[in-house]
Write a structure and sequence with these properties.
It comes from Pseudoxanthomonas sacheonensis. This is SPW repeat-containing integral membrane domain-containing protein. Residues 16-109 form the SPW repeat-containing integral membrane domain. The protein is mainly α. It has one domain. Helices cover 73% and strands 0% of the residues. The longest helix is centred in the C-terminal third of the chain and has 30 residues, at 92-121.
Length: 122
């Protein structure tokens, strides 16, 4: 008896959500030069977090995995608190960018992770 036990995880997630996280990561990389200005903390936080989010989203597009989604989720959560941890909360543009991008990335990654777990149980 030939039983195929492999799981099709690509059907479990919505690729357009991963493309959205990729776009958000690229936007975050560019954001310090889009008139947000500010300190080197703002610059490096945006470039590093944006790069990691974009890479994780790219990996999730190629092969959906919980690891890529967890990475995006944790970096999204970091972006939510980064303005206060790195003390750039007084820069409204950078703060709103960090919080809104972080919120969107975390929600998308959380939903994708939930779909991956649901498909693994099925």
């Amino acid at each position: 008896m030939n039983v195929n036990t492999s799981k099709n995880t690509s059907a479990a997630t919505n690729p357009w959500l991963d493309w959205t996280n990729l776009a958000l990561g690229l936007f975050l990389i560019a954001s310090p030069w889009l008139a947000l200005g500010g300190s080197t903390a703002i610059l490096w936080n945006a470039v590093i977090c944006g790069g990691v989010i974009a890479c994780a989203a790219g990996a999730a597009i190629v092969k959906p995995s919980p690891g890529a989604q967890k990475t995006s989720l944790w970096f999204g959560v970091w972006l939510l608190i980064a303005p206060w941890v790195l003390a750039f909360w007084s820069n409204a543009g950078a703060t709103w960018t960090s919080v809104l991008v972080g919120l969107c990335v975390a929600i998308i990654a959380g939903r994708q992770l939930s779909e991956l777990k649901r498909s693994a149980r099925a």
